[in-house]
Amino acid sequence: MEFEAGDRVIAESESTERPPRRGVVEEVLRGEPHPRYRIRWDDGHETSYTPAGGALRKAEIEPSA
Q1: pTM over cut 0.90
Q2: How many Cβ atoms from other residues are within 10 Å of residue 6's Cβ?
């Protein structure tokens, strides 16, 4: 799946002891077939991220309360 700037995403953890990370795609650095994204994580950190197959997915929109 390819993502665009502004998409909310969830990165699955490789460890069962860590929860998934949530963030926003700030920039698409490289597209398919080997995508790379600049993501600002909800904890305030920003990284360049190259997802392994199935490791990154679009976050569901949470309904307003």
Answers
A1: no
A2: 8
The pair of three-digit structure tokens given for residue 63, joined into one six-digit string? 């309904």
d(CA 33, CA 38): 16
What is the spatial distance between Cα 45 and Cα 53, in angstroms, rounded to a whole number? Answer: 23
* Sheet with 46-49, edge to edge strand ranges: 46-49, 36-41, 21-30, 8-11, 56-58
CB 51 within 8 A of CB 31: no
pLDDT of 2 reads: 86
* DSSP code at position 53: T
What does the pLDDT look like over 2-50, one tens digit per residue? 899 999 999 988 777 889 999 999 999 998 888 999 999 999 999 999 9
- Output the six-digit token pair for 64: 């307003």
